[in-house]
Amino acid sequence: MTTETRTIHVQAYRDKDGQPTCAAEFSQGHVFRFLGSRKFGTQDVCMTNGANVFRRASGPMHGYLVPVEGCPVWSGE
């Protein structure tokens, strides 16, 4: 068996203040392709590592998803 390394392109999003987010606008489909859910859609989860994804708790950008620690897209931010 052989292995190969492949590169895939993903769309990354920022909120209105320029902060990294996993989903900018659900209704328009501006959602990271590896964002999933469990518990009947009530818990957002990062499909790259299985960690729960949480929303910002306060401020004008309340509700935007915060990428998990070690996110492969935003870890350099």
Provide structural commentary.
This protein is an all-beta fold and 77 residues long. It has one domain. The chain has no helices and 8 strands. It has a two-stranded antiparallel ribbon. The protein has a two-stranded antiparallel ribbon with strand order 3-4. The protein has a two-stranded antiparallel sheet with strand order 5-6. It is globular.
List its traits.
globular, two-stranded antiparallel sheet, single chain, 77 residues, mainly beta
Would you kindly provide a brief summary of this structure?
Helix content is about 0%, strand content about 25%. By secondary structure, it is an all-beta fold. It has one domain.
The geometry reads as: globular
Order of helices and strands: EEEEEEEE
State Rg: 14 Å
Strand fraction equals: 25-35%
Sequence stretches where pLDDT stays below 50 over 5 or more residues = none
**Domains (count):** 1
Termini separation comes to 36 Å
What is the topology, as strand order, of the major beta sheet? Answer: 1-2
Largest sheet: 2 strands, antiparallel
Write the layout of secondary structure elements.
Blueprint: E1 13-14, E2 20-21, E3 23-25, E4 30-31, E5 35-38, E6 43-46, E7 54-55, E8 65-66
Antiparallel strand pairs: 1-2, 3-4, 5-6, 7-8
